[in-house]
Write a structure and sequence with these properties.
Blueprint: E1 7-8, H1 17-21, E2 55-60, E3 68-71, E4 77-80, E5 83-87, H2 93-104, E6 113-119, E7 127-132, E8 138-141, H3 148-154, E9 168-172, E10 179-183, H4 186-192, E11 206-209
Parallel strand pairs: 7-11
Antiparallel strand pairs: 1-10, 2-3, 2-6, 4-5, 7-8, 9-10, 9-11
């Protein structure tokens, strides 16, 4: 019988503390195995939403002096030629291009703008964060049908000190703010090829990989 789910009110992830990060996942429920999908099915289900620290290429047709590459500031704004402090987070590249066109139309006739995201971070609610004993602990943008295997490939797998089968996933219910913990078996997935350990990942998930006690 599966143990009851542990639930918590939403605190900051860092409040879990180092002791929690090293805790065993014994007794936690496991997620069902993910279905494998083709690469075409793994494409984003909807247009990408710009977030802080994304890098944007703003191209203004026939106006190279107005074209620029810019990183979204932590406050969610950018500054481009002729436009100061433009709020961009939460917008798609197409919507942002349209807004820039409207603002530039004050200065030039019928501007045509294209915005390309060249460095992806995205809003926190659309990221998957991996902390602890991953080769490259980091936050990666969520995409449709993302799995644990995909995430681990992105972060370079486990370190030699990792307790992969002691890892945990923390998932927040966006409606209630309630956190639920699940056990992960990353070592079984990566080293033993146990496909039942490959689970579906959701936007906002946090994966904690503790250090082995041995």
């Amino acid at each position: 019988m599966i143990a009851s789910v542990k639930r918590y009110t939403l605190p900051a992830i860092c409040a879990l503390g180092l002791a929690a990060c090293g805790a065993s996942n014994s007794g936690l429920p496991e997620l069902p195995p993910a279905k494998f999908s083709s690469s075409s099915e793994s494409e984003p289900a909807q247009n990408y939403v710009i977030g802080p620290l994304d890098t944007l290429q703003v191209f203004v047709w026939r106006n190279p002096e107005l074209s620029t590459s810019v990183t979204v500031r932590p406050d969610g704004r950018i500054t481009t030629p002729l436009i100061d402090d433009l709020e961009v987070t939460g917008k798609t590249p197409a919507a942002l291009a349209k807004e820039i066109e409207e603002k530039l139309s004050v200065y030039i006739a019928e501007p045509i703008v294209q915005v390309i995201v060249t460095g992806f971070q995205g809003p926190l609610s659309k990221q998957v964060r991996v902390v602890g004993e991953a080769t490259r602990p980091s936050a990666i943008p969520y995409r449709n049908k993302l799995t644990l295997l995909d995430v681990m490939v992105n972060v370079g797998g486990l370190t030699e000190f990792a307790s992969g089968d002691g890892a945990r996933l923390i998932r927040v219910d966006p409606d209630t703010g309630t956190q639920t913990e699940y056990a992960l078996r990353i070592e079984s997935l990566l080293k033993d090829g146990d496909t039942s350990a490959n689970v579906a990942i959701q936007p906002g998930d946090v994966i904690i990989i503790p250090e082995s006690a041995f």
